[in-house]
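thought: fold this chain, then report.
action: predict
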Amino acid sequence: MKKGDCVKINYVGRIKDTGEIFDLTYEDIAKKEGIYNPKIKYQPVGIILGSGTILKGLENKIFEMNIGEKRKIELSAKEAFGEREPKLVKVVPISEIKKSGIDPRPGLIVDFSGIKGRIQSVSSGRVRIDFNNPLAGKDIEYEVELVEKIDDLKEKIKNVLEFFGVYKYDPDIEIDVEKNEIRYKKEIPEKIKKLIWKIFNESLDMNDLKFVQIFKKE
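observation:
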């Protein structure tokens, strides 16, 4: 495998010490482990190698794999989601949280000043929030299967759009590879557009990419 290759992978991600699954693509394993979610579509995930959309340590190992190969990949906390940083645990006035219409309680995920964190405790008019990644400080392991390689440019683009969830809210999206154009009805967030362009520009060697929103008469 090389940079710019589009591949599909199946995987199970576990916390090494406990064996707890934090992410997976297999429906049968999700049901067996009692973590099945009917709202999730379990299927191989398409990624562009070298695009930085998955953990670097995981991506480096996938570069070494062959189509059809299965491999267990272990990553230290530093290679995975980083070590826990005490400075990312903040104490803020409860009034600041309630301004956003949130009733703070332990365990709740909140978006505070554009950063997501988990509330650890609420007491004496103050809220303690941990902004570390929930998997920070944990060694993890992946069971990965390299399912297939995709060479067709349109399919590559489609897989990138699926990776970022664009197809979930706009299934009528159209891809014109001759015009380097993506036509859509529902607005795509600017942040997602820039990430998609970054992947195309660096990994797929495209000179330009047009996002065209279509308004049709109902």
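thought: worth noting. The CA atoms of residues 66 and 85 lie 37 Å apart.
final: tokens above.
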